Amino acid sequence: MASTGLTSTKLSERLPQVSGLQCVICGAVYSLDETMYTCPKCGPVGTLDVLYRTGGRRYEAEPGLLTMWQQADLLPLGTPPPTGLQKFGGTSLFGPESLAKLAEEVGITELYIKHDGLNMTGSLKDRASAMVVAHAVQNLGRHVIATASTGNAAAALAGVCASVPGAQAVIFAPATAPEGKIAQMVVFGANVILVNADYDTAFDLCGAACDEFGWYNRSTGINPFTSEGKKTVSLEIAMQLNYQLPDVIVVSVGDGSIIGGVHKGLADMQRQGWITKMPRLIGVQAAGSDALVYAWENQLSAVEMQDRPANTIADSISSRLPRDRAKALRAVRETNGAFIRVTDEQILAAIPALARGSGVFAEPAAAATFAALQPALAAGVIDQHERVLLLITGNGLKDVRSAMQSVSLEKPPVVAPSLDAVRTQVKNWQIA
Question: Using 50, 70 and 90 to split pLDDT, how confident is the model at 301?
């Protein structure tokens, strides 16, 4: 067996800031040396939290220097990440000054947007892939990392592995994944397998292949370090707002890992005493893939949840049985939040509405957060006077076909190459 290049010390000794891994179902605590993925007692539903010792140093935001790696005492690394990964995170947060028009349109007094579509490969899932690859390479000496994904996590893993010498990505994605996302995977040089089935089936196949070939499994809901990457968006939001957090954070939800990660970051900061207020988390699902909304409405536990149909234009949040369902339910229940569903029609309408009101081009899953605002206001889930932050998880360039569908009735005119034709069109536009 090839040498990993690591010292012989145990992982728990090399990461003294980490006190252990805790099952979200039964509460059992394990050392870093005892288990790699899920709880041995509870099986796949028993996803794990990475626990940290208190007394960590709180960092303040420095203009131009924000990255996902700054809160080192709340990250599972013993040394700085590989140089190629230091460019991830540090995405823009837009405040009320630039979003006044959009806020007025939806009837909210104070609106914020955290735009994680500005990450290196265009989605928040860059954070999870960067953290998992850093952990795999530096802490475990593993260089072949596999994942199942509807597209974004796969593109993220492909891009991250391309940034780290020696790292290799193996991707299992549904054959129906958007072309733009498949293109990213291939361009970055990943080993891609398109599965003639849905995401949940690709997920199971990825796990079986990791067992067969000894690859490290990055997949959501299996690997606890994906949450550690995704939680960095909460750490950044806190720094960017000087730790004065919004009242509400709205997050689109598929497998549950992002909202679980957002909550993990908030809970870690609260445990350290860095924040005193926990925002309410609102999880948004597509009506055609609403397993968590259904569970929340019917007071089901993660263990009681069953498969539900998954058919939505928002491929990034399409899942029959969310793998990180325990963390997602906990995130909403512990923050007195809510789950809400929106239709594909509402999602499509939200893409141009969000873009025109804010300059933010979001893929369908990300636009779902904006689509949910007015239904949430109407249902009393959000109050118009609350400070509300939308988490935009993916760039609209990820799924141009859906963006074109969202403006299908607004096809740009084709005119003769003459100034007279332009004058006529300008009159039709009614430009002031």
Answer: very high
> Cα–Cα distance between 9 and 89 in angstroms, integer?
30
CA distance 411 to 230: 37
The SS3 assignment for 406 reads helix
Q: Which amino acid is at 126?
A: D
What is the distance between the alpha carbons of residues 398 and 386, in angstroms, rounded to a whole number? 31
Domain 61-432 fold: Rossmann fold (3.40.50)
Q: How far is CA 52 from CA 67, 68, 77, 227, 264, in A?
A: 20, 17, 12, 14, 11
Residue 56 has what pLDDT? 82
Would the pLDDT of 3 be above 80? no
Cα–Cα distances in angstroms (integers) from residue 18 to residues 30, 82, 139, 260, 291, in the given order: 11, 20, 13, 19, 33
Domain limits, the chain:
61-432
Other Cβ atoms within 10 Å of 4 Cβ, number: 12
CA distance 323 to 295: 14
**8 A C-beta contact, residue 249 and residue 331:** no
> Are the C-beta atoms of residues 138 and 161 closer than 8 Å to each other?
no
As to burial, measured by CB atoms within 10 angstroms (0-12 exposed, 13-18 middle, 19+ buried), residue 17 is middle
CB count within 10 Å of CB 150 equals 26
Determine how many CB atoms are found less than 10 A away from the CB of residue 201: 15
In the predicted model, is pLDDT for residue 4 greater than 80? Answer: no
Token duo for residue 21: 């891994």
CA distance 368 to 342: 7
Backbone angles phi and psi of 232, in degrees to 5: -65, -20
**Runs of H (alpha helix) within 92-231:** 100-106, 125-134, 152-163, 179-187, 199-213, 225-230
Q: Alpha-carbon distance 46 to 88, whole Å?
A: 29
Phi–psi pair at 113, nearest 5 degrees: -130, 125
pTM of this structure? 0.93
Residues 76, 81, 85: CA angle, nearest 5 degrees: 120
Structure tokens at 194: 């398109």
Residue type (1 letter), 409: L
